[in-house]
Amino acid sequence: MKNEMLAMILAGGKGTRLGKLTQNIAKPAVPFGGRYRIIDFTLSNCVNSGIKNIGVVTQYQPLILNDHIGNGASWGLDGLDSGATILQPYSNNEGSKWFEGTAHAIYQNIDYIDSMDPEYLLVLSGDHIYKMDYEDMLSKHKKNNAALSVAVIDVPWEEASRFGIMNTDENDRIIEFEEKPENPKSNHASMGIYIFTWARLREVLLNGFKKDVDMYDFGKNVIPFYIKSGDNVHAYHFEGYWKDVGTIDSLWTTNMEFIDNEGDLNVRDKSWPIYSKNPIAPPQFITSAANVKNSMIVDGCFISGEIDHSILAANVQVKEGSVVKDSVVMTGASIGKNVTIKRAIIGENAIIGDGAVIDGKEEIAVVGNSEVLGVMINEG
Description:
Elements: E1 3-10, E2 31-32, E3 36-37, H1 39-48, E4 53-57, H2 63-69, E5 83-87, E6 91-92, E7 95-96, H3 102-108, H4 110-116, E8 118-125, E9 128-130, H5 134-143, E10 148-154, E11 164-168, E12 174-179, E13 188-197, H6 198-210, H7 218-228, E14 233-237, E15 242-244, H8 248-258, E16 285-286, E17 291-293, E18 296-297, E19 302-303, E20 306-308, E21 311-312, E22 317-318, E23 323-325, E24 328-329, E25 334-335, E26 340-342, E27 344-346, E28 351-352, E29 357-359, E30 365-367, E31 372-373
Parallel strand pairs: 1-4, 1-8, 4-5, 10-14, 16-19, 17-20, 18-21, 19-22, 20-23, 21-24, 22-25, 23-26, 24-27, 25-28, 26-29, 27-30, 28-31
Antiparallel strand pairs: 2-3, 6-7, 8-13, 9-15, 10-13, 11-12
């Protein structure tokens, strides 16, 4: 069956700026908000936008991400005419080759895309926190008779030099692309969200790689090629909540904003639910010695300490005398007695021994996944 629009989520990034948190896990699989992983927001946007088939391109440390997505059942993508397909590098008659860029990842998966026979291809990043109706973007793409539509968000002028900037004319047609310009001409920052008319992109990629033309990256190669070739390239302006959580500071800040019940993301909006695959866990247990305020506590937690303005994911333990403030504690972490944790991110299944002090006063403190602090391990 022909798909009007197929989504391809690029989820293979290392996320090196997240340090310890991505040593053994792909960036899109990093936990967020107590109950989610980062990629859940992009997947949920697809489902809420009526997109029934999604290819997820993975590469770096894919095990946890692959297990999390599975067959897409948690997002309702396990029907007869819907599905989530994990796409990893593979070898063929030409040998084995890793994905070497965003456009190259699409080129390597042309056979899969052709099998879905889409009219339009939606290319997404799997590592942003936002809610967006891609159906509205497709409607504008059709109205503009565009070969390519690029979602943009206006950033503060003082930050524009950190982004890929799309310069447009009075009709929002993109006439120039600048990668992290020193003196930006506009503040229309690319969100890494693209809708291509598939027949044209297929032609551009096949011809480019056949002639050994550099077509590895959308931002550096493909978009400039479209503009230079006179293709109709339009900007789609997005004005909602959107955060790139690619650094420790941005991941912590966005989690702290998530605690705000009246925040712009509004995760409680029943008309646009955020779906996820969650572990089976017993109800949370908060003892009489505990003091919890302005925090999110997920199933399976045992709390006997003080929790203030923090997020505790599933199956976290905080024992008596301990204080957790302005922090994110990920699934399965165990915090001993009389521990102080402030302005920190505690990784999945980390173990914090009695009396430890973790203070992110100068910069956000990070304890890695399964890291052990302040505990004597008897190897005998």
